[in-house]
Amino acid sequence: MRLLICLLVLISTSLYGQKSKTYTLRTIAFYNCENLFDTVNDSLTFDDDRTPKGRYHWTEERYHQKVENLSNVISKIGEDISKTSPDIVGLCEVENLDVIEDLVQHPNLREKDYGIIHFDSPDARGIDVALLYKKASFIPSSFKSHRLLLFDEMSERKYTRDQLVVGGTMDRENIYFIVNHWPSRRGGAAKSSPLRVRAALLNKRIIDSIQELDLDAKIIAMGDLNDDPIDNSLKKILKTKGKKRQLDSVSLYNPMEAMFKKGVGSLAYRDKWNLFDQIFMTSNLVTEDRTMLSFWKAGIFAPAFIRTDKGRFKGYPLRTYSGGSYTAGYSDHFPAYVFLLKEVKE
Predict the structure, then answer these.
(1) What is the C-alpha separation between 144 and 170, in angstroms, rounded?
(2) What is the pTM for the complete model shown?
(3) Cα distance between residue 186 and residue 290, in whole Å
(4) Are strands 88-94 and 23-36 parallel, antiparallel or unpaired?
(5) By C-alpha distance, which of 273, 291, 307 is closest to 342?
(6) Residue 20 phi, psi (nearest 5)
(7) CB-side neighbour CA atoms (13 Å) of 102
(8) Beta bridge partners of 134
(9) Interstrand relation of 138-146 and 163-170 (parallel, antiparallel or unpaired)
(10) Spatial contact of 163 and 170, defined as CB atoms under 8 Å apart
(11) Nearest CA-CA partner of 277 in 296, 292, 255
């Protein structure tokens, strides 16, 4: 049974200046799970640190605490308005299908009936991206993992995460989701920037290929991009726009750009906030016509319980380890989310 939200004053009055209307509200979220590893040593990947005898003494107890923490966060993203958990959740830094299944089967999420779409990536540490979807909200019809081929200055392969593309139906409309985890800034932002430009180029090719088949395709891309909304990968390669009035039929709208310019961040490092966790979309989702699925608003989910409450890192995301010490936290990133609306015809 789909969720019907009657936004009597908040939506109908402020946007339309008319009597109340009823809308279907959909929450699309993304969460970097910060090393959601099981405790088993995989001989094919560099996961040794996340084992009981490894550097982080990653025990079953700590693993299960991590699953409980993450499932609790996911269950609450957007809940203050939607009264339920997100309909779609993109994930990154998950080791394998087993840990994702543990996540959705935790009591915090079990009754939400999430489906999982996941492929193993060739990433050297063995971390992947994945998509969770409520079976009552979204019916997937296609899914593919696109490989990002990267090489260093010696022409040796650099193994990283794939980009996951899932197409399907939501509220009787076709829609596509792309889940990303672009290369990190290891070695410095400037030196590593070409790697993220390559990731953005792959993302653009994926979007272009979908639109070649369906010019009116509604597409939402999300992920930990390891770049801010104003960086070249977004602005020059994907040509994202931060203002609705700048949009045209081929533009991509990035609501996180305006948030970033106001000082909003999803992670912090050395007293500097970045907004790497982003959700952007094709312009046909940015419309005043609420008879179709349309963007309403975006946010970063950062309640007090997932923030560090004291000390040097007060206000930062409460992570699982800090300075090598176990802190029993959540993630070093805050989740990002957007709301979509569609008017319910009486």
Answers:
(1) 18
(2) 0.94
(3) 43
(4) parallel
(5) 291
(6) -60, 145
(7) 19
(8) 114
(9) antiparallel
(10) no
(11) 255
Tell me the residue type at 199.
Answer: A
Measured CA to CA in angstroms, residue 6 lies from 77, 114, 345 at distances of: 19, 24, 13
Q: Which two tokens stand for residue 84?
A: 């339920």
Please, are residues 115 and 131 in contact by the beta-carbon 8 Å criterion?
no
Q: Can you give the pLDDT of all 346 residues of the chain as single tens digits? A: 444 444 433 343 344 455 688 999 999 999 999 999 999 988 778 889 899 999 999 999 999 999 999 999 999 999 999 999 999 999 999 999 999 999 999 999 999 999 999 999 999 899 999 999 999 999 999 999 999 999 877 788 989 999 999 999 999 999 999 999 999 998 899 999 999 999 999 999 999 999 999 999 999 999 999 999 999 999 999 999 999 999 988 889 999 999 999 999 999 998 899 999 999 999 999 999 999 999 999 999 999 999 999 999 999 999 999 988 999 999 999 999 999 999 998 7
How big is the CA angle at 132 (ends 163 and 175), to the nearest 5 degrees? 70
Q: How far apart are CA 256 and CA 32, in angstroms?
A: 16
N residues, the chain: 346
183, 192 Cβ separation under 8 angstroms:
yes
